[in-house]
Amino acid sequence: MKRFFTLLMPVLASGFLTSCQVPSSVSRDAGPVLNDSSMTASIRIPVGLKAPTWDSLKPKSDIPGWDRKIDHTYFSIQTSQKVIAITFDDGPHGVNTPRLLDMLKKRDIKATFYVVGNMVKNSYGPGLLRRMVAEGHEIGNHTVTHGTLSKMSEDGLRKELREAHNMIAEVTGVEPRSMRPPGGAIKNEQKKLMLKEFGYPTILWSVDPEDWKRPGASVVTSRLLNGAAPGGILLVHDLHAPTVDAMPATLDGLLAKGYKFVTVTELINMDESGSE
Ligand SMILES: [Zn+2]
After folding, report:
1. Is 237 a catalytic residue?
2. Whole-angstrom Cα distance, residue 266 to residue 28?
3. Helix (H, G, I), strand (E, B) or coil at 198
4. Is 89 a catalytic residue?
5. What are the helix (H) ranges across the chain?
6. Dihedral through CA 167, CA 168, CA 169, CA 175, nearest 10?
7. What would the pLDDT profile of 74-84 be if each residue is shown by its tens digit?
8. Catalytic residue (choose from 89, 90, 238, 271)
């Protein structure tokens, strides 16, 4: 430890390593985790050169579509920024989804929609998906039939995801980047398969207001506002009118608390954890 401080102090004094540039794992675990060679490699920075950023220290991904190594499952991410992702499942719905899109547009909020293939097949489906993309939202895969994936064979799972993936890509010209299992029901080996074969991380959630039980708009709002935390993922359903009714107060409340809304892909790219 003594050697570590001897090496580190001049660098800190010179101002090259600010707290935001030091990887959290280094500041937390410098003594026991890092050996001498990795320490000196990370802190001996020639004058005039930029210190390494956390991004540049992250392992590269071997998963198509992702620059950095990602996990197979996310409930939330670790971040020092006040960002949050709101996700809408089970649509698109012919009446509630356009109403929601108007609310999001008015506030310049970007969301992520986990759409169901069989809903996309409705006459209004393709137009709504194109509107989502045109207005800066992200679309994720929520299967074709909304069946229970954990009860399906590997081939059944592949078929559900591939068909929905192709449908979204054909309609919008944009390929989905992540998936959400209906009901959250998914096995570990299925998550690994989806990441390897589709490049999909499995996106779960940090706040579930159980809006589908229709507890009332004000209850949905208060559960979301109380549960929100930086790096969180909010789960709601644009299929249900009372959920959309809860959105103006929810969105305004989160904005008033200082949250910036990002899509799920943007959120994952902001993860400051070690990705291991
Ligand atoms: Zn669902």
Report:
1. yes
2. 26
3. helix
4. yes
5. 2-14, 24-33, 36-43, 54-57, 96-107, 117-120, 125-134, 154-172, 188-198, 217-227, 241-256, 264-269
6. -140
7. 999 999 999 99
8. 89
Rg of the chain in Å (alpha carbons): 21
What residues flank ion ligand 1 with Cβ within 5 A?
89-90, 182
One of 237, 238, 240, 271 is an active-site residue; which one?
237
Joined together, the tokens standing for residue 230 give: 């930086």
CATH number of 73-269: 3.20.20.370
Q: Do 31 and 22 form a contact (C-beta atoms < 8 A)?
A: no
pTM: 0.79
**pLDDT tens-place string over residues 162-174:** 999 999 999 999 9
- Centre of ligand 1 from the C-alpha of residue 26, in Å: 39
Q: Answer yes or no: are the C-beta atoms of 227 and 81 closer than 8 Å.
A: no
CATH 3.20.20.370, the chain: domain bounds: 73-269
